[in-house]
């Protein structure tokens, strides 16, 4: 499976090439630490059926290490072997079957933001931008190309909000060594992203299409002749329209 450069994160595989591009080129690099979280020494409890980790989906290209009664599984013969049955659900089997009283620990990497979650965030983000004044009615494939960055920013905000709302979940399961520090960093990043989107991106993105900065063409149109240089290049006149000059052609 192909992965993004320098990571174990697979290339996006949604139902839209536009979504795939935004995820791969804009979102994954900002969420990379959360898209390849490393779990150390998770203790696996005995079960009659397939064994399962707390967190999933696993990253299929990432290293998977396990120990059974202190021995590396798959290395020492006495420890047996491990077979993954479903990466998306963190399911696996051990041979020989794990017995009660045995200790089994697993190291693995999982993705906190797999494709289905980011896909949904992008759809929501399009609706959010459509709702901003003036209202529009685009979908992910028909929206203007310049919307890509704004959509990625809104999806990033949703991702940070999910992490903060899931705080109790990952805090009690100890993904992070210092949960309080992580919460503070997430809150700071979320505040910055919201400010950037609402104060900078949206006002520029949703302004009327006919509003633009004045150019020499504008000055040439209102000053009707003459010549002078200014901040916008060569323009004409002296700051006012010349008005109508009454002459003999008007009967005078």
Task: Write up what this structure looks like.
With 252 residues, this protein is of the alpha+beta class. It folds into 3 domains: 30-34 and 112-205; 37-110, no CATH class; 216-250, no CATH class. Helix content is 36%, strand content 15%. The chain is built from 7 helices and 9 strands. A 4-stranded antiparallel β-sheet has the order 1-7-3-4. Strands 2-6-5 form a 3-stranded antiparallel β-sheet, with no helix packed on it. A hairpin with a 2-residue loop joins strand 8 and strand 9.
Number of H/I helices: 7
How are the strands ordered across the major sheet?
Answer: 1-7-3-4
Shape: elongated
Which percent bin holds the helix content? 25-40%
Instruction: Kindly state the number of beta strands.
Output: 9
The helix-strand sequence is HHEEEEEEEHHHHHEE
**In percent terms, what proportion of residues is strand?**
15-25%
- Count up the domains: 3
**Secondary structure category:** alpha+beta
Provide the residue-averaged pLDDT. Answer: 83
Radius of gyration: 29 Å
Give the termini distance in whole angstroms. Answer: 86 Å
Q: Largest sheet, if any?
A: 4 strands, antiparallel
Low-confidence spans: pLDDT under 50, at least 5 residues? 227-232, 234-244
Key structural traits:
alpha+beta; four-stranded antiparallel sheet; single chain; 9 strands; 3 domains; 252 residues; three-stranded antiparallel sheet
Would you kindly provide a brief summary of this structure?
With 252 residues, the chain is of the alpha+beta class. 36% of the residues lie in helices and 15% in strands. It has 3 domains: 99 residues; 74 residues, no CATH class; 35 residues, no CATH class.
